[in-house]
Design brief:
Length: 494
């Protein structure tokens, strides 16, 4: 049977008709994912397509397939995707294409950490290529202002930075965002957790209201949804299921072990495994101590935490990328935006306090579909936290854990109620004592008043007496005067 293509019926629907004799029309629905199986299908510029080829970007990831066409239309995006799914390119590719079409427009990308900002800048520079019309700048803390001022003087059209340093430049009036028409808030949930909400609000005051905004977050809790209503205009929801991605390419090993036995077990696990290892601990001092202990035990290791200055952090990351040492011990500062393709193993020496951070930790391995492994040390004290993480990853199979937060809230409510009762008791006691005091005060006041009144009455009586005596004296004087007058008159008559 011969078929004839007659054209597109709708966005994702095409009409194919059989031979005229059969008079049969077949409607074939083709998903957008199947249609856009390469970057050329997005209608990008020649230079951008060449840059993608140079970067060996051939097949777009699911998040790129969903986000790029929407962003190219100028629509705001509320996106959720795990790190390692190509999210950075999902907002950088349309950004560069839009800036190419609009020569007077600039763009701003805000990230929670310096490491993530540098990673985003690196991807951006590769996509820009050798273009003379689009320059970039990186504004992060821990760097000298002079270096960043030199970048700003060159008139960059793409700025990547952290909220704190961006606000510093805005307050100094060394940064102008009035031409910014493209804003990306990357890892927004993390930025809010780190307390950058105020800085984000301040930054938006320096930007035009008609800008396009892309908000990306690994998860979409209630706080992110509220923020999206504030920052986004009729956004399109773009998401990929991160949990399924994690489970398909990452092998999980969970070890129930006492806390004081963790380090010995860690040495056993490191002997078994080849490739680079990323170990997560919960404290900054813990990273330094463990890296030192591992070095003493024959492993090339280094630490990464927030206490290190920027030069030290850059040096550690560069050495790790160049495979100068095998083991990197880090806090959750490395759970976001750390892109090192050769990381094969992630060790959760200490479980994260936030369930969503576990997803980000595991996102450091198994990048772009590669295989990876995760080892979780779970002490008896962390059993409840692990149950929450396990349920988050496997909601259909895992047992729903007891909500520890609700228990804490109940306890806190009870404590607050007892405190309020105690306060009310104290208040009643205070009121009784105060009433007694008031009674004493009132008595003393009344006594003073009575004394004053009595003294006043006495003085008034004495005054009245003086007045009466004065009147009586005046009367007697007048009578005497009258008598004297009468006598004189009587005496003067002939």
């Amino acid at each position: 049977m011969e078929y004839m293509y007659l054209g597109r019926v709708s966005t994702n629907c095409y009409r194919i008709t059989a031979s005229r004799n059969l008079q049969l029309t077949i409607y074939l629905t083709i998903t957008k994912e199947k249609l856009m199986n390469n970057f050329e299908s997005f209608g990008l510029s020649k230079n951008l397509n060449q840059a993608l080829l140079n970067m060996e970007y051939t097949i777009p990831t699911p998040i790129q397939i969903r986000a790029i066409p929407v962003a190219l239309k100028g629509i705001d995006i509320l996106g959720s995707a795990q790190t390692g799914t190509g999210k950075t390119a999902a907002f950088c590719i349309p950004m560069i294409e839009i800036l190419t079409r609009n020569e007077n427009m600039t763009a701003l990308i805000m990230t929670p950490t310096r490491e993530l900002a540098r990673q985003v800048l690196d991807v951006t520079n590769q996509l820009v290529g050798k273009s003379k019309y689009i320059k970039t700048a990186c504004l992060i803390g821990g760097e000298a202002m002079g270096k960043q001022l030199n970048q700003l003087r060159k008139g960059p059209r793409i700025i990547v930075g952290t909220p704190g340093r961006i606000n510093d430049h805005l307050e100094r009036k060394t940064l102008d965002l009035m031409d910014c028409g493209y804003l990306v808030l990357d890892e927004t949930d993390r930025m809010l957790d780190m307390g950058f909400g105020i800085q984000i609000n301040q930054t938006l005051k320096y930007m035009p209201s008609d800008k396009q905004t892309l908000l990306f977050s690994a998860t979409l809790p209630e706080k992110i949804m509220k923020l999206s209503k504030k920052y986004l205009y009729n956004p399109e929801r773009v998401a990929v299921e991160s949990e399924k991605i994690l489970l398909t390419n990452i092998k999980h090993d969970v070890l129930n072990i006492d806390h004081n036995k963790k380090y010995k077990e860690l040495l056993i696990q490191l002997k078994k495994r080849k490739g680079s290892v990323l170990i997560f601990t919960k404290t900054k001092h813990g990273t330094q101590r463990m890296a030192k202990n591992l070095s003493n035990d024959g492993y090339k290791a280094d630490a990464l935490n927030g206490n290190l200055n920027q030069n030290k952090r850059d040096r550690v990351m560069n050495n790790f990328r160049m495979k100068k040492f095998k083991v990197l011990v880090a806090t959750d500062i490395a759970s976001r935006g750390l892109d090192v393709p050769h990381i094969e193993h992630v060790v959760n020496y200490d479980l994260p306090q936030v369930v969503e951070d576990y997803v980000h930790r595991l996102g450091r391995t198994g990048r772009a579909g590669a295989k990876g492994s995760a080892i979780c040390f779970v002490s008896p004290e962390e059993k409840g936290l692990w149950d929450e993480i396990n349920y988050f990853l496997n909601p259909s199979t895992a047992k729903k854990p007891i909500n520890q937060k609700n228990i804490k809230n109940i306890v806190s409510k009870k404590r607050n109620s007892s405190k309020s009762n105690n306060l009310s008791k104290k208040k009643s006691r205070n009121t009784s004592t105060s009433s007694k005091r008031e009674d004493v005060k009132n008595k003393s006041r009344n006594s003073r008043r009575s004394k004053k009144a009595s003294s006043f009455n006495k003085t008034r009586r004495s005054a009245n007496r003086r007045k009466l005596s004065a009147k009586s004296k005046s009367k007697t004087l007048s009578l005497n005067n009258g008598r004297e007058k009468n006598n004189t008159q009587y005496n003067q008559h002939p």
